Amino acid sequence: MPSASTGAPTTVGAASSVTPSTAAVDSRLTPGGPGYRRMSFALFLAGVATFALLYSTQALLPLVSTDFGVSASEASWTVSAATGALALFVLPMSALSERFGRRTLMTASLAVAVTVGLLVPFAPSIGALVALRAVQGAALAGLPASATAYLAEEVRPKALITAIGLFVAGNSVGGMSGRVITGWVAQEWGWRVAVATIGIIAVACAVAFRMLLPAPKHFTPGSLRPRVLARTVRDHLANPLLRRLYAIGALFMMVFGGVYTVIGYRLTEAPFSLPQGIIGSIFLVYLVGTVSASTAGRLVARLGRRGSLYLAGGTTTAGLLLSLVDSLPLVLLGLVLITAGFFAGHAVASSSVSHTAKQGRAQASALYQSAYYIGSSAGSTLGAVAFHSGGWAGTVTLGLFAVLGVVTITLFGSHAARTQARREPALAH
What we know:
Blueprint: H1 14-17, H2 22-26, H3 36-54, H4 61-68, H5 72-75, H6 77-100, H7 102-119, H8 126-140, H9 142-154, H10 160-189, H11 191-212, H12 226-237, H13 240-268, H14 276-281, H15 286-294, H16 296-322, H17 328-356, H18 361-428
Helix pairs in contact: 3-7, 3-10, 3-11, 6-7, 6-8, 6-9, 6-18, 7-8, 7-9, 7-11, 9-10, 9-18, 10-11, 10-15, 10-17, 13-17, 13-18, 15-17, 16-17, 16-18
């Protein structure tokens, strides 16, 4: 996808908008250079903690339904409340990161989120559980709001897609390990002990993250003035390419959120009738997402950004169709393809946002994350509703419409790029 300037004011996101000197560029982190591995591992652990906490109840929804005597759609709010709150708070958190620094905000966000995570197992009712999960999601908003901006400032541009891919890979590992661990722990000791276990793991990740992440060298505090922030957001939303990328992120996540919210219910029912531990192990397919996200840079180098999005959409579609068959091996293969397509598409779209936004990158990334988690929240809720009314086929249909939206938007982007390319020679003359 072509790069486009947003025209955002320089008073917000100044850290990412200032053209660095040659010395500053040379001091940025690059693969193989000092500090790059520490930075990558620290943000990898942050991604693990974020996704493990954010989706800690997703694999446990059948048990939550039984414990509180609620339906699948009601239990799904323990996921939707967290992702919805994250979507709501990611933009304000991005403004705070401009003022107080990326590392400071990420540390504070993790500290609050893991504290709430240790309280979640003691929720006395479904309402209290949903409320705690909403607070947790709001706290976690500081991570996606700051991480990509930190990378855009501290990593050399040529290594940015790879670095963001590693962070997204941490998300996939967190999502996988959280679901696998909770599945087996819950089978023996119940969902409350399972969620507590994730909380303890997240504490360890948070501590290691703070110890490992290098201090920022290219951050300059920006303004917290609401008028300036509003102008920056307005300029980003006026950029057609950024709008398309936001929509693509939301639609990809709608597929992913819907599938993984409902898959536990499907596998507990006939003809599969799997125990909770085995269902949790199904999420090992997230390892495929780890690989596809971390190789997004090479994929873009071969196919280009739009070509990579077409491939991701096609892979996801194939997975959705395969999952309709009442055969466990084919359902698993379908989940593998859905996961690979989603994480590849997400890594390409999120890195394209950082590449496109020349100013106010924190806000540009925050808007993407907001759209992304709105898609997750909508997918979790609508996927459960579709499952309740039409079974697994209903959830798959919702996913197919979302992928169709991704392909349509990407086709429109290709047409817009060709039109612009034809206009530029004419304007030159």
